[in-house]
Amino acid sequence: MYPCKLTSKQRIERSYMPQEQVSGAYLVIQKGSLVGKRIELWKECTTIGRSRDSDIFLEDITVHRKQASVVYTDNGYILRDDHGSGDSFINGEAITLQLLNSGDELCFGNTKITFFANEGTRPFQLPSSRGRELHIGKTPELNPTTMAHLLIHNPLTGSTQSIELLPGMTIGRSRECSIFLEDLTVSRHHATIHEHSSGQYEIVDNHSATGTFVNGKPVAQSILEEGDTVQIGNNTFTCHLSQA
Q1: Of 88, 114, 138, 170, which sits 20 to 30 A from 220 (CA to CA)?
Q2: Taking residues 60-82, what's their average pLDDT?
Q3: Would you say residue 154 has pLDDT above 70?
Q4: Residue burial 165-188, b: 16+ Cβ < 10 Å; e: rest
């Protein structure tokens, strides 16, 4: 077994590598079999590897059974290579022991993970839309009457992203959804957008855990009107309709 506690020689002085507040630290897997998974760091030592005994089990044959550990110290979280083969990386550099800073990219074999020091350091991420490509090859409507968009405002930059609504679009935390929301308060398949023959768009809640709200009211389904505000988890959209 590899000890989780550091020896005095392994400790890193705060004056050498300052670390921001570490409460609420977590990892997000960006590439690998668990892509999109968020892992809270609540233990003094969190082990990573291909062994099922690891706290973070990576089903990746390019990862060692006992690959690395994320260890909490008085100075912050550090990443320690536990195998000694020089194949634990932070931002592309091989490490044996290094203090982690928020946003650092960890790489083990084919798995990439991002470290976030606390919730407040997480960058604001706009939803990603997989709408139009899902409809490539389908016969378009000959006489479309209404075009609908959901507008989402980024409070950090003041910018607005527009997502065109298409029939059958899904919204949720699953990357298979047309509109992917990286938000733990959102269900995997939270809601669906339907288009009626009249050209109206309707949002339907898919029995989500936290509900779908239109203009502040919880709905099971609701026809979307110009200016309606839709809230899903921590995400707020404004509906904009225009004649085609």
Answers
A1: 138
A2: 92
A3: no
A4: bbeebbbbbeeebbbbbbbeebbe
Q: Over 70: is that where the pLDDT of 10 sits?
A: no
- φ, ψ dihedrals at 8, nearest 5°: -60, -30
pLDDT, tens digit, for every residue of 21-36?
335 788 888 887 777 7
Give strand ranges (E) for 74-184.
76-81, 88-90, 93-94, 97-99, 105-108, 111-116, 128-129, 146-153, 160-164, 170-172, 179-180
Give the C-alpha separation, 128 to 117, whole Å.
Answer: 24
Q: Which residue has the tokens 């990576």?
A: 58
Which of 152, 175, 160 shows the shortest CA–CA distance to 33? 175
Residue 22 CB partners (closer than 8 Å, separation 6+): 72, 76, 77, 117, 118
